[in-house]
Amino acid sequence: MPVLQPIVNIAELLYQKGITDVVVSPGSRSAPLTLAVARHPHLRVRVMADERSACFVALGMAQQSRRPVAVICTSGSAVYNLAPAVVEAFFGQTPLLLLTADRPHEWLHQQDGQTINQVGLFGAHVKRSYDLPPDYSHPDARWFIERSLNEAITLSQLYPAGPVHINVPLREPFYPTADESFSYGPVRVIDVCTAQPTLAPDTWHGLLRQWEQSDRIIIAVGQLPRDPALLAILRKLSDEIGVPVVGEIVGNISRNDVFITRTDTFLAGIDEQTAQSLQPDLLLTIGNSFLTRNLKTFLRQYPARRHWHIQPSIDRINDSFQSLTTLIPAEPLAFLEKLFADLDYQRFLQGDDDDDSDSHAFLNRWQTLDRQATRLIEKTLMPSAEQTNQLTDWSAVQLIMEQLPEKSVLHLANSMPVRYANLCGVSERQQISVSANRGVSGIDGCLSTALGAALMTDQLVTLLIGDVAFFYDRNALWSAPVPPNLRIILLNNDSGHIFRIIDGPSRQPELETYFETPHGYTARNTAEDAKLLYTVCDSLDTLGSLLPDFFQPGNTARLLELTTDKQANQEQFLAYKAHIRAFYDNKI
């Protein structure tokens, strides 16, 4: 198979550049790529028949491993099916390498099957696109292929990480004859040295002066993977310096006695006087997107005089709160550790390293409201006598979050599950790693993404997902085997429940038909087809008794379907909103 040797060598170059996992969707035009990775002794290859699901599985694998995962598919409309996961990877800053087989370009518009214009197909939603030559006879062509692969794999990992597209036109023959064998390499690996940006002393001292001139400072943490070292330095800045650390479940900010995590509740009905008392002089942000509308609205309506955003390098200006004054190219952990060390040393020199109640007054204001919001949520979840055993989506999520196994992984599907989970939170003691597709926040690949995460870890991976997202993406379970460490908890209220919660659609007579779209499905047959252990539950007491066994390790993935009533879910959420109004009306 000498004419396709450069294609065979792609598999070796993937391995040499640190890629160990490939997700393949079957096809004929892509056969040379597929055979190259399938026969490579050091690559792990997963086969997924549905290209849309396949790319989301790769996304979940990359989220969990924080390394690029390669995706291979055949030509034509198959390539377009990668697009939803590609845009999530782009805005979620997750590294993917997309290897799409193609027809030679001279066959475009010649009524040849599976032939579309694939060059640059993903547009602005990939970091870069490459189009390889279909003929390899000239040495420059082989040099170009190697150079492009080296560059693409490196680029996928450089900040901000993201997807890179390599289009691969292929001529027949695609398949080796019986007497042909594969040999890999040699390939040329081009390493790229990385360096951390360093702030000039004058710049650093200028930032310290701005800090000292600011009486009210907030650190807000957007979506980030769990990092114990980062959590530790954030706690020090709050405990010892008196800075409120505001975060959400998607930023892996766990509930403890220090961090502020209930902003979606206590900022919902905030009055002018309270809002002004919480307005920062300096806002320091790290991480990606924020989940809660109320926090984003507050920081836009009551902007900080100075707003620093810390990110590893300057790519785009992220000014989501419309108040950015300084973009700082630095690793957030390194920046915060140096910041704390310098502030702590200054306090020592000034002799005020003991706790100062005045310096903590702003922190105490935020923490007091956070604790009051916790009590308000507990009041909402406290059932009346006739509702003692009633299972609602929210009460189910609260019980689930409390019983999640320590040091496990939680994947949150979009729409209401991620919002309920944020309202409930996880305890710092549990050391849960939380992930979610919050780049573009779609429901279309949540099950596939969680399955991909489970493929990359021995830890238990729990997916909390709604019924519409689950049934939309059940092709994730098509390609067996499903990893045995996956636990799927399905909240089935027979509707797109979020539209009953949002004020606009909830008031429309077309709510059920055009927004909620009731379906009447259960997951029983899907679980049977995928050979999952299946349990259904409709009461809170039963759920409490099922969860300990459900979370036990085993040889088979499990699916727990919780059937709830959408009217009861809506009533509970409306009661929550009423409690918020009463809180501010009565100042309790």
Summarize the structure.
Helices cover 41% and strands 14% of the residues. It contains 23 helices and 17 strands.
Structure description:
The chain has 588 residues and is of the alpha/beta class. It folds into three domains: 2-169, Thiamin diphosphate (ThDP)-binding fold, Pyr/PP domains (Rossmann fold), CATH 3.40.50.970; 201-370, Rossmann fold (3-Layer(aba) Sandwich), CATH 3.40.50.1220; 387-586, Thiamin diphosphate (ThDP)-binding fold, Pyr/PP domains (Rossmann fold, 3-Layer(aba) Sandwich), CATH 3.40.50.970. Helices cover 41% and strands 14% of the residues. The protein contains 23 helices and 17 strands. The chain has helices at residues 5-16, 31-38, 51-65, 77-80, 83-92, 139-157, 201-212, 228-241, 263-266, 272-278, 293-301, 332-350, 361-381, 393-403, 416-424, 446-455, 467-472, 498-501, 503-506, 511-516, 524-529, 540-550, 566-586; strands at residues 21-24, 44-47, 69-73, 96-102, 129-131, 163-169, 217-221, 245-247, 282-286, 306-311, 326-329, 409-412, 433-436, 461-466, 486-492, 533-537, 558-563. The strands form three sheets. A six-stranded parallel sheet has the order 2-1-3-4-6-5, with helices on both faces. A six-stranded parallel sheet has the order 13-12-14-15-17-16, sandwiched between helices. It has a five-stranded parallel sheet with strand order 8-7-9-10-11. Helix 3 runs parallel beside helix 5. The chain starts with a helix and ends with a helix. The model has no long low-confidence stretch (mean pLDDT 93).
